[in-house]
Design goal:
This protein is an alpha/beta fold and about 325 residues long. It has 14 helices and ten strands. Helices cover about 55% and strands about 15% of the residues. The protein has a ten-stranded mixed sheet with strand order 7-6-5-4-3-2-1-8-9-10, with helices on both faces.
């Protein structure tokens, strides 16, 4: 067996054991130790070492998170999604990614976003984007569903069984049929909008079908006040799933985003809630700093145009319809030195 296959087999065996383990504290600690063992680079090892120290706190809410996730989620899905993101994306893929960064002197994100509408950004365009991304070592994708045929989107997710997809499903009707189609390969985590009118009922239905899911919400200046007070995340309560992702609107000030990002970071250090709170833009930048060589936030809008942490780019050539993905990175994410 090749080295990668052996490591994947070891991960599968360890995860299967962890799901059966009667003690959540021991199971989480074993998984963190495994993460340290497979870490690539100093920053990843330091991250897992910090997590190990955090989990010495016996009252950690993350033990409650683990118990709930293992109880309410399909274990095959947890295993497949976890390995695709954790191993393919954060370990095996990073070796390819870092090699290409050195060769081409450009940043390459470890996580890529795309806005899917079934028209300009249709299934063929998304499939091409993911195929190019996988060749660069990118195995984690955040897809914002805006419109379009769910079956066509599901076909793309199923075609890339080694990647992990987070689907921001605010405008997608999460019927039993749609959920089944989207998650057929068990490599998908559905993200439910906290602003959905039937939000609690959707989350309950996903728990009853043992679907891996999380929650997300866009925020403006007014909602940021509610978030910073703690009221917003407290209201989510038992419907939180695994993660709560916060997405800043373009008009939100840098100071507000920094405050929300600091709250998310502090809540994780203190293990304050039985879910993992993240500011999606700010934390993806930090993740890319830890995993890749450069901190960057990259997504493509429905027109195929590059969007970074500084907003939508205006250079027409920075478009997935006009340039290959690597060429876009070479033009827009040039590394110093």
């Amino acid at each position: 067996m090749k080295t990668g296959a052996i490591r994947r087999h070891m991960l599968q065996a360890t995860l299967s054991s962890a799901f059966q383990d009667e003690g959540p504290k021991r199971a989480i600690r074993n998984l963190v130790e495994l993460g340290e063992k497979f870490s690539v680079g100093r920053r990843q090892r330091a991250f897992f070492a910090d997590v190990r120290e955090m989990l010495r706190k016996d009252s950690s809410a993350y033990y409650l998170l683990w118990e709930r996730v293992v109880r309410d989620t399909d274990h095959d899905c947890l295993q497949t999604f976890g390995i695709n993101v954790g191993y393919n994306g954060c370990t095996a893929g990073v070796r390819t990614l870092r090699t290409l960064e050195l060769i081409h002197h450009c940043g390459i994100p470890s996580i890529l976003g795309a806005d899917y509408n079934g028209a300009e950004m249709d299934s063929r365009m998304l499939d091409s984007l993911v195929r190019q991304g996988e060749k660069l070592g990118i195995y984690t994708y955040v897809i914002d569903y805006r419109d379009g045929d769910v079956g066509a989107l599901a076909g793309v997710l199923a075609a890339h069984k080694d990647s992990g997809f987070i689907i921001l499903a605010g405008l997608c009707a999460l019927t039993t049929q749609n959920v089944t189609m989207l998650t057929v390969r068990k490599n998908v985590m559905l993200a439910v909008s906290a602003d959905s009118p039937d939000f609690p009922q959707i989350c309950q239905a996903l728990r009853e079908t043992h679907t891996l899911y999380c929650v997300y919400a866009a925020y403006d200046e007014a909602r940021a006040v509610d978030i910073l007070s703690g009221n917003f995340v407290e209201r989510i309560g038992e419907n939180s799933g695994t993660f709560v992702f916060l997405l800043p609107d373009d008009a939100v000030s840098a100071q507000t985003v920094e405050k929300v990002g600091s709250l998310a970071s502090e809540s994780r250090r203190e293990q304050r809630w039985p879910f993992i709170l993240m500011d999606l833009r700010e934390d993806l930048i930090e993740i890319n700093k830890a995993i890749a060589k450069s901190g960057c936030f990259v997504r493509f809008d429905t027109d195929g145009q590059l969007v970074t942490e500084n907003g939508r780019t205006i250079e027409p050539s920075l478009n997935i319809r006009r340039l290959a993905l690597l060429d876009i990175f070479k033009s827009s994410l040039v590394l110093e030195g």
